[in-house]
C-alpha cells in the first residue's frame, strides 16, 4: 500500500513540473512573438493587439504494454483561445503522429492507438498547434511536448552466456574467487526495482557460493574438501532475479562448469614392493632388462617422476632410466654379466616426483617410495672368451720365417672348459704372411716381411670350441713391423748442373741432398763423399755440410768443351745407422760457355740437342695422331665408294627399257585417266589438240601439235598411233620422266600369235586354230592337245 501511494505522489509531482516548464516555454514564445508583432506594428504605423495563450495539460505519461481493447487515453490539449464554439482545430505532428498517436481535432483529446514497448522506445516527441477551421490560419505557434512510457516489469534478467566454463586449483582456501557471471535486465533501472538484480545459487551447494550483488562465484569449502582426486568436475546453476530479489520478480539462469585443476599433492607409489626379473648372461650392455611401475594420482608435470638405484650388490652392474611417455622405470645392463661369477643381483630402487611436492596434506606420509628388484642371471652356452679385447705385437722386419711373434689365449667361459682351436681369418691376411698354432695360439711368420711395403698388419684370430664348432669368437691382432736399416740412401732427386769454362777453384756448382726409406729411431744422418776410384777427383770435390746436404765444388779454374763436355761425378752417400748402408749416386755436370756474371750462354751440341729435341712421349703421341688420321681418311673413302650407285639412265641417247620402281601402284583396268582406250577402237576420232590426261594441261608450256590422219588399217593404225604418241612425249618438255603404263593391244609384227586382245581381233574364240602350238616345242604340246581336242569335239 505504501508503494502505491509513493508511486502516485511521484506521478503527480512529475505532471506538475512538466506543466510548469511547458507553460513557461509557451509564454516565453508568445512574448517573443508579441514583441515581434509590436515591432512590426510600429514599423507599419498600426498598433496590434497581443493575445495571451496558455495550455492546459492533463497527462504526460503512458503505461507500456497496454492490453486494453480501446485506445489508450493519454491526455487533453486545450488552448485559451478555445471558446467551445467549434471554430478551432487541433493539429498533432512529430514521432508517431497520426499512426501511433491521434488527437481529436475538435476537443484536443490525445490517444495512443498501439501497444507500446518502452524497451523499444522510451519516449516520443510531439508538436501541437491550433488553426482556424474556416481560414486555416495558425492561431498559435507549434509547441513541443514529450510523452514518456511508464516502465513495467516485463523483461526477465538475461546472462551474457548460457554456459560458462571456469577452473580453480584444488585444495584452494575457502572463499577463493572462481569466476564472475553478469546478467542484464532490459527494464528501466531508474524507475522502480524492475532492473535491480540479485544473484543466488540454485545448484552447486555446498561447494560454491555466489555474491548476491556482483555475481562473483567463490569456493564454499576448505582445502580438505576440494580434492581433485576425489571429484574433478562440478556443475553450478546461478539464478538472477529482478525486483531486488523480492517475490514476484522475474528470474534468469545460467550454468557454470567448474573444473578443479591439479596440484602436486600426491607422491608416487610403487604398485608392488618386490619385483622379480631374469636376464641371460649373454645380454649386450645397454639392453633393457625389465620395467617397474610407480603410480602418481596427479596429472601432467605433477605426475612426472624419476627412479634411481640407491643400494644393492648390482649397483655397478645395472642402471635405471625413466620412460617419459609411460613414466615407467627401465632397468638396463651397465656391464657384461657372467653367470659363472654371479648368478643373481639385488637392487633397491627409489622413486620420487620431479616437481616440488605440496606436503600440507601429506601429514606423516613419506614423499618417496622404495621397491626391491631381484634379477636372476640365466646361464648361456657362450663362445670362447679371449683374455684381451685386442692384441698389439711388435716384430722386426728382418725376422726369419717361422719366428713366433706373439700369442693369443682364449678359454671356454662355461663350466665345461671345452678345449679351443685357433685359426686366422684369411680375409684379413690375404698375403698369408702369418699363421697361428691351432693348439696354443702362437702366431709365427711364414713369409718375409718388409716394413717399407706395409708397416702394420691387422689380422683376426678365431677361437673355436672343439666340441661345439658353432661356438666361435674372434679377436683383432695388430702387428707392427719394427724398422731395420736395410736400405741405402739415395739422391733426393735427379741432379744435373753445369760449370762455366772460365770459373774459380772452389766454386760451388750444386747442392745435393739424400733420402732413405728406412725410419731409424734417432732420425736420419747422411754422410757425403767423392768416390775413391773416380777419375774426376782432380776436377771436382764434395763438401759435406753436416745437415744431410753436401755441396759439389770445382777444383780447377778452367774447363774446355772441346776437351770434355760432360763430367759424371760419383758421390758416395752413407747413412749413420747400423748396419751401415751406402750407395753411389752420379751427378751430371756439363761444360758451358758463360757470360761475365756466370750465366750460361751455350753448352755443347749434345746438351743443345737434348734440350731442343722432343721427348720420346711426345714423338709417340704425334705418331699415334698421324695413324688415327690416316685410318679416318681410309674409312671415309670406303664409305663413299659403297654409297655410289649405277645411274638410272647413263645417257639421254640410251632409251632402252629400264625397270624403275617409283612406289606408285597402277589402277589396273579401271585406270582410264592415263590413256583413252577409245582411241584404239577408232584411231580416226583422235582430236588434233587432245592433251594428256595424266598431267595438268598447260597451254603456255607447249602449243598444240598438228597431227596427220592415220590410215585405218588393223595393225598399221595402232602402230602409227603409238609412234605418234611416242613422238609427242619426246618433244614435250613437261612430260614426267617415267613411263605411263597403258595397254595398247599390239604385240608387234613379228609375233606369230599376233594380238591376244579381243579389241582388235577379227575372229572369235571359236575360229582360232591352235595347231601351231605343237611347233613351239614339247612344253606347248600339252596345250595344243587340250585345245585341239576341243576343236575336234566341237566338229563332231
Quick gist of this model?
The chain is α+β, with helices and mostly antiparallel strands and 796 residues long. The chain has six helices and 43 strands.
- The dominant shape is extended
- Alpha-carbon distance between the termini? 161 Å
Low-confidence stretches: 1-9, 14-56, 605-612, 685-690, 699-712, 760-764
Q: Helical proportion?
A: 10-25%
Care to count the β-strands?
43
Mean pLDDT: 79
Report the structural category: alpha+beta
What Rg do the Cα atoms give?
A: 68 Å
Q: Give the biggest beta sheet.
A: 5 strands, mixed
How would the blueprint of this fold be written?
Elements: H1 2-44, E1 55-57, E2 61-63, E3 72-79, E4 88-94, E5 101-103, E6 109-112, E7 123-132, E8 138-150, E9 158-159, E10 163-169, E11 177-180, E12 183-184, E13 198-203, E14 208-210, E15 216-219, E16 233-241, E17 251-261, E18 269-270, E19 274-280, E20 288-295, E21 305-312, E22 318-322, E23 328-333, E24 344-353, E25 369-378, E26 385-386, E27 391-396, E28 404-407, E29 410-411, E30 420-424, E31 434-436, E32 442-445, E33 456-465, E34 472-482, E35 490-491, E36 496-500, E37 508-515, E38 526-530, E39 540-544, E40 549-554, E41 566-575, E42 582-594, E43 600-603, H2 605-612, H3 616-643, H4 678-681, H5 714-731, H6 778-795
Parallel strand pairs: 2-8, 10-17, 19-25, 27-34, 36-42
Antiparallel strand pairs: 1-3, 3-6, 4-7, 5-6, 7-8, 9-12, 11-15, 13-16, 14-15, 16-17, 18-20, 20-23, 21-24, 22-23, 24-25, 26-29, 28-32, 30-33, 31-32, 33-34, 35-37, 37-40, 38-41, 39-40, 41-42, 42-43
